[in-house]
Write a structure and sequence with these properties.
The structure holds two protein chains of two kinds. By secondary structure, chain A is an all-beta fold. Chain A contains no helices and eleven strands. In chain B, strand 7 and strand 8 form a beta hairpin. In chain B, about 35% of the residues are buried. The chains are: A mainly beta, B mainly beta.
């Protein structure tokens, strides 16, 4: 079974721009969660989608948003990028029933 | 709110020596607990998880962890370290709200001395 895939793997943007990251979960998984990883703040939960509905949200500003499609693929969008948004963004999928979350390789975003 | 504390941001052990990485959790109800490993430029890989079944949990690559409710601990151990174990290790606790949110510790970087 193919694992979680994330595209793109690397991205460079400038302040003020917006960015969209994509995540394809493991086949059959209906839950997709997003995490931000930075050296200063560590791993922080952004949000979780289950069957196209946001089920939980972390403490991030409204510039961070996401959505999930009917095939469970998910996208997250960050608008008006700030230097502090530079991070590794990780996506994880599961069957949504408190089972194991499987992580993708991440998208490394650099904001200049 | 759930929280996890990992004692020691850096741990160094000699090849063949015991690996002990510490994790203490704070939770109002028995949680689900996880250990993940992250190799450079990669995502997180699950090592093992505790879901209120056996208190001693065996994982991949020879790792195991013991859930001790009285100490609110879930320390990760491996009897004999291998060079390939060098990585960053994260302890995590699941949310109690029936959703998938994980709260992670700050991580422990494990270095193996040849």
């Amino acid at each position: 079974k193919a694992g979680v895939t994330q595209t793109p793997r690397y991205l460079i943007k400038t302040r003020g721009q917006q960015v969209t990251l994509s995540c394809s979960p493991i086949s059959g998984h209906r839950s997709v969660s997003w995490y931000q990883q930075t050296p200063g703040q560590g791993l922080q939960f952004l949000f979780e989608y289950f069957s196209e509905t946001q089920r939980n949200k972390g403490n991030f500003p409204g510039r961070f948003s996401g959505r999930q499609f009917s095939n469970s693929r998910s996208e997250m969008n960050v608008s008006t990028l700030e230097l502090g948004d530079s991070a590794l963004y990780l996506c994880a999928s599961s069957n949504g029933d408190m089972e194991t979350q499987y992580f993708g390789p991440g998208t490394r975003l650099l904001v200049l | 709110a759930q929280s996890v504390t990992q004692l020691g941001s850096h741990v160094s052990v000699s090849e063949g020596a015991l690996v002990l990485l510490r994790c203490n959790y704070s939770s109002s109800v028995p949680p689900y607990l996880f250990w993940y490993v992250q190799y450079p430029n990669q995502g997180l890989q699950l090592l093992l998880k505790y879901t209120s079944a056996a208190t001693l949990v065996k994982g991949i690559n020879g790792f195991e962890a013991e859930f001790k409710k009285s100490e609110t601990s879930f320390h990760l151990t491996k009897p004999s370290a291998h060079m390939s174990d060098a990585a960053e290790y994260f302890c995590a606790v699941s949310d109690t709200g029936g959703n998938e949110k994980l709260t992670f510790g700050t991580g422990t970087r494990l270095t193996i001395i040849p």
